[in-house]
Amino acid sequence: MLTREEMHRLLVARGQEQEELFSESRRIRNEQFGATVVLRGVIELTNVCRVNCDYCPMRRDNVRENDTFFLTADQIVSIAEVIRDSGIDVILLQGGETPSVLPILENAIPRIRQLYDDRVEVLLNVGNLKRAQYERLHALGATSYILKHETSDQDLHLMIRHETLDSRLRHLRDLQEVGFKIGTGLISSLPGQSLDSIVDDIELAGEIGADMCSVSPFIPAPNTPMSLEPIGDNELALNVIALLRLNFPHLLIPSVSALERVGGGGQSRGLDAGANVMTVNFSGAGDQKRYLIYGKDRFVVTLGHVRDLVESSGLELRGSVFIEQESTSTGVAR
Ligand code: SF4
Questions:
Q1: Which candidate, 316, 281, 311, places its Cα nearest to that of 298?
Q2: Ligand 1 — pocket residues by CB below 6 A?
């Protein structure tokens, strides 16, 4: 584990020092996972959300004016079939935080498992729910869950998410106790965020025993209270990826599409910095436009884009790490 002083220095590394940092984080990734990238297929379930994050166009205050949608369970299962036929065994079901998605998920998850004869990782990213609901989703076959802490600065968290950091962390603990593999994530370059608080974010991923952690540079999205704030710094986000890898070699770290929004070639740099996950978007074209995560002109990641990028980075695509670990621990051959 690097000291806080070392992390401070490396977060601002540029030029030769940054390249040396990336080279070390790639070495650690390749030692841990081989030179591979886990491929996920994402289905966006709904753009309705009851939370009011100041940086997000799907925030509660915008719901009335947004063109809202909910996928049906049938639609989700038929997209999952396309993902399966593309050779991807991690299905990420993602949407705004609303209890209305629960019956849809409860219907879709067992059918997705059936499609794959149970050889699938069903990964959820649908916000805070009740513990009994986590238990139900886990019993139905969801195996991993992303609940990003976004920022570990308690005051900043409350100010921009209007919810407490403590409640987010309590939910992460609940998920872990229920048996989920857990993912967290942070936004870097948030207005008002210090480098010291980013060091806290990195340490937090270790303290909570996260299996996955993402890093997204801040994107000022239209129709939000933060629309006029300056766009985040890609280089800082990349250095956070590298430091997460150095400190916690086992982490699944995605190279997110927001890196591409801030600078062309950003996702390729994410892999250079030690990331080892990429997510392909399988939502229908109409729903992609309505899922306003970074505004209407967000960068939508296709399978072709991922294949080109992974190949040009000298890496290979692979399936779920968690399915493989499960097989090894139960002695079932892949
Ligand atoms: S960031 Fe997530 S929780 Fe916050 S408003 Fe947007 S969809 Fe809802």
A1: 281
A2: 49, 51, 53, 56, 58-59, 96-97, 127
Report if residue 104 sits inside a domain. yes
- Within-domain flag for 334: no
Is position 292 within any domain? yes
Pocket test for ligand 1, best of 97, 163, 293 (most atoms within 8 A of CB): 97
Q: Domain tally for the chain?
A: 1
Looking from the CA of residue 55, the nearest atom of ligand 1 is 1
CB 182 within 8 A of CB 175: yes
* Ligand 1 atom with the shortest distance to the CA of 293: 6
Ligand 1 centroid to residue 127 C-alpha, Å: 8
Q: Which atom of ligand 1 is nearest to the CA of 49?
A: 8
Q: What is the mean pLDDT of each run of 10 residues along the chain (334 residues)?
A: 97 98 98 98 96 96 89 96 97 97 98 98 98 98 98 98 98 98 98 98 98 97 96 97 98 96 87 98 75 70 93 97 84 46
Q: Considering only CA atoms, which residue is closest to atom 2 of ligand 1?
A: 96
Range of the domain at 150: 4-329
- The pLDDT of residue 327: 80
CATH code where residue 172 lies: 3.20.20.70
Q: State the alpha helices, DSSP H only, in the chain.
A: 4-11, 15-33, 73-85, 101-115, 131-140, 154-161, 165-178, 195-207, 234-247, 258-262, 266-272, 285-290, 303-312, 321-330
